[in-house]
């Protein structure tokens, strides 16, 4: 089971489904869901990411917005997704509440979040230590469930395995998520290189493998 498969299963059948991609970035998920027939709207605060998304997925709609203040009326969407996005939000509790607000009755929210563990996390940590923000995202989900705002329809943890031909490929991957990381990489290059070498598993073909555990919640507003 991977995250994309679970997202597809949660919203099946996809044709015609009105889906909101919260923190859409360059439109990678929006492209997959649009190809599956969904009517996708993506939001992101980053202008560069939205420009890339619009070019990559002309069949979807993209708007500049924050997860804490979605520019849509209540009950607009049949489903919403936060893919590796909640821990980037300054106020994850508000983001969850906003997602619930814009869902139509019976709609689902799928939240995919990396945990603060795994070899990918270990390699990333000298560049950006996300221990606190990843914990805050999990705490916000737990609080929303404990407070009765959502019902948990499913929760699973999967391991995302990525391979890289070399260190620079890994660095390009993590810098694409946040270009500000490039300055840290330059300033701490020896430490970053050592962390990558220690964390990565060398495969038979010479590539470097890193594993990131992801916790996936399928939530329904109560």
UniProtKB/TrEMBL annotation:
Keyword Lipoprotein among UniProt keywords: no
Annotated Methyltransferase type domain residues: 20-111
Pfam families referenced in this protein's UniProt entry, alphabetically: Methyltransf_11
Keyword Transferase attributed: yes
GO MF, any single term: S-adenosylmethionine-dependent methyltransferase activity
Key words, A-Z: Transferase
Protein name according to UniProt: Pimeloyl-CoA biosynthesis protein BioC
Species this chain originates from: Methylobacterium pseudosasicola
Lineage summary: Bacteria, Pseudomonadati, Pseudomonadota, Alphaproteobacteria, Hyphomicrobiales
């Amino acid at each position: 089971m991977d995250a994309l498969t679970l997202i597809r299963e949660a919203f099946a059948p996809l044709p015609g489904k009105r889906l909101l991609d919260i923190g859409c970035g360059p439109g990678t998920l929006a492209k997959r869901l649009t190809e599956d027939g969904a009517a996708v709207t993506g939001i992101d605060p980053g202008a560069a990411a939205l420009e890339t998304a619009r070019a990559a997925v002309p069949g979807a709609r993209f708007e500049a917005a924050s997860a804490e203040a979605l520019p849509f009326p209540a009950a607009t969407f049949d489903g919403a997704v936060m893919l590796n996005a909640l821990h980037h939000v300054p106020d994850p509790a508000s983001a969850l509440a906003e997602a619930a607000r814009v869902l139509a009755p019976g709609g689902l929210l799928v939240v995919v979040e990396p945990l603060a563990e795994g070899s990918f996390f270990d390699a990333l940590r000298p560049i950006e230590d996300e221990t606190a923000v990843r914990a805050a995202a999990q705490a916000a989900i737990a609080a929303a469930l404990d407070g009765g705002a959502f019902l948990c329809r499913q929760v699973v943890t999967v391991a995302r395995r990525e391979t890289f031909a070399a260190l620079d490929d890994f660095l390009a991957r993590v810098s694409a998520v946040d270009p500000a990381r490039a300055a840290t990489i330059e300033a701490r290059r020896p430490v970053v290189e050592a962390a990558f070498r220690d964390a990565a598993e060398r495969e038979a073909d010479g590539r470097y493998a890193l594993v990131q555990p992801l916790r996936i919640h399928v939530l329904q507003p109560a």
